[in-house]
Hints:
Layout: E1 3-8, H1 9-18, H2 26-44, E2 48-53, H3 60-64, H4 77-94, E3 97-100, H5 105-118, E4 122-126, E5 140-144, E6 149-150, H6 153-160, H7 167-174, H8 189-199, H9 202-207, H10 214-222, H11 224-234
Parallel strand pairs: 1-2, 1-4, 2-3, 4-5
Antiparallel strand pairs: 5-6
Helix pairs in contact: 2-4, 7-8, 7-11, 10-11
Amino acid sequence: MNKLLIIDALNLVRRIHAALPDDNDTENLARRVTSACQKLCKFHQPTHGLLVWDGEQVSWRKKLYPDYKKGRKPMPEALQQSLPAIKQSLVDNLSLHSLNADSEADDVIATLATKMAKAGQQAIIVSTDKGFTQLMLANVQQWDHFSGQYFDITALENKLQIKQNQLLDFFALAGDSGNKIPGIAGIGTKTAAELLKSYHSLANIYAAIDKLGEKQALKLAEGKEMARLCYKLAQLQTQIPLNINLSQYRLAPV
């Protein structure tokens, strides 16, 4: 069985960069990123692997909702300038190639993982982004390099007090602060979890809106269009045209 290691590149690089004592030490950053990828390849023993990078184009999410990810700190200039050297270091030391998304890497990663799973192959996504947990496919796992373990779905369910298959409904109601997805005004995480526990889905909640308290029903009614928008913003796309061949990313055994 083929095993594809898909690294959420900027998620990895920015986390490593944030831990450096000197923001401008690009050589050290390149070494640490290369070392991290070496460890990932050695531990997971993938047959294929690649890093997926965010592109420069404005994402469809930003066009749909201009405040998407608004307020996030911009990438430091020194880090931006060091990216070509990091990519080359990974090719030179690991033959680990890059795939540049047009805009956001997330949809490309989701598409790659889904294609692998549907073909009966295995995919491991390396990222700390909990949004990937919406990919409910048997052959897809998510690895947190910084904690050194697979993403614990049960722990996430216990933390949010929802089921994995309710994650998008939860984001539609309560939002996702990491991506500046607002959710419905006045509906927090606790209320969203309670509603989903009682009614199981967003559609069921709106079907039963007359049974809710007046204030809560009003918030939901006024926020219905926002909920739809937030659901769409949070949902990963899994059919992005890629025009690539898996053989391009085959790795030598580590």
